[in-house]
Specification:
alpha+beta; six-stranded antiparallel β-barrel; four-stranded antiparallel β-sheet; 21 strands; about 30% helix
């Protein structure tokens, strides 16, 4: 039996193929999206601001009385020791008024010395209390009763109080040298050279007067600092300063050395000052003082750095990128990919960093969410 091909088979096949192509083209296709996995990691909440590095123990040597200052014997960068002669002055013959002013200056120096002694006396019980607290928390840390961070914060507070007491003692020595200089001027004869002594060991940071000339009493001559102990002054907004506490860690970058420098917050100054920003807006700024713990030799006095203060740290928190968040009225939500289908899920957020945020509820570890979702995405839509 001979098979006969239908007369319109070619047209039928063509119509079926064209119809199938049209139907396939009209079928909804999965949308390509960028997906990320919800996972646990460390999140740090930070405050970033510009800062200036400076020598912590710094002393300004001033003219004890009006006279001729001879050319200084030191230059910036020279190392000096306490009691070293850094210059000489030739005091003029003092009249009654000048002698009275010099005696008043001696009285002022003695009053400053008494104030330093009072501060040292008030620091002594605080240092002893901080030492006992450090020992107690060290024992509790060994037994697992407190975290290591609490023990380290107590130890840092103890060390800061000790360093503050050391700085006061150095300042006491400075006032003693200053008082001796004024008394030497009072006891000197016209034309007699009176030596100017370095109040403490350190490095000459600045020479305010270089050439020989007549200089008035109280005029700064030389600034000396201990560059082995540096601190950083961080300029922050007052709304950020309320979250900063002594003992917080600071990372210093952007100083040109290519490495990060660590520091620890020692003090948040109690008063703010009004400053005008580059945009002409008045802002309330607060100075935060931090101690540099591992200062490189190349990081000098007055250098600019970029400070990052770690306000909060979560070591094992459930995190998602900020770019995955969407907002509806007063609620945050994300788009979860469930078997290739978009599902909207509301989330409760915690602390956040520059790139990540902590999720308190609404997601589980391992969930897949859409990163940088498009506004055209809708719930129930298929994605790939």
């Amino acid at each position: 039996m001979k098979f006969r091909r239908p007369r319109y088979l070619g047209w039928i096949l063509t119509a079926v193929i064209v119809t199938g192509a049209i139907i396939f083209a009209l079928l909804p296709r999965p949308v390509a999206v960028e997906q990320v996995t919800v996972q646990r990691q460390r999140v740090e909440t930070t405050v970033e601001a510009d800062a200036i590095v400076r020598a912590r123990d710094r002393f300004v040597v001033a003219m004890p009385a009006t006279g001729v200052l001879e050319r200084l014997r030191v230059e910036p960068g020279d190392s000096v020791f306490a009691g070293q002669i850094i210059g000489t002055i030739i005091p003029p013959e003092l009249d009654a008024r000048q002698r009275s002013e010099a005696r008043a200056r001696v009285g002022s120096i003695n009053a400053a010395s008494a104030e330093i002694l009072q501060r040292l006396a008030s620091l002594s019980p605080l240092i002893e209390q901080a030492r006992r607290r450090t020992d107690r928390l060290d024992r509790l840390e060994q037994s697992g009763a407190v975290s290591r961070e609490q023990s380290e914060n107590a130890r840092d507070a103890y060390e800061q109080l000790r360093r503050e007491a050391d700085a006061l003692r150095e300042r006491m020595r400075s006032t003693e040298f200053e008082a001796k200089a004024v008394q030497a001027v009072l006891a000197g004869r016209p034309g007699q050279r009176v030596p100017v002594l370095a109040p403490a060991s350190g490095v000459v940071l600045r020479c305010f007067e270089r050439s020989e000339r007549t200089v008035l009493a109280g005029t700064p001559i030389v600034e000396i600092g201990d560059t082995s102990r540096a601190e950083v002054v961080i300029d922050v907004l007052s709304v950020d300063a309320v979250r900063i506490r002594p003992g917080m860690s600071v990372t210093l970058d952007g100083w040109g050395g290519g490495e990060s420098v660590r520091a620890t917050v020692r003090r948040v100054e109690p008063a703010a000052s009004t400053r005008v920003s580059s945009l002409g807006i008045e802002e309330q700024r607060v100075n935060v003082i931090a101690d540099v713990t591992d200062r490189p030799a190349r990081l000098g006095d007055g250098y600019r750095v970029e400070a990052c203060i770690i306000v909060e740290r979560f070591d094992n928190a459930l995190c998602i990128p900020l770019g995955a968040l969407l907002r509806q009225t007063d609620q945050w939500y994300v788009l979860v990919v469930d078997d290739g289908i978009i599902r909207r899920r509301h989330v409760t957020l915690g602390a956040r960093s520059a790139l990540m945020t902590v999720v308190l509820s609404g997601l589980s570890e391992g969930d897949r969410i859409v990163q940088h979702p498009s506004e055209s995405l809708r719930e129930g839509e298929r994605v790939e």
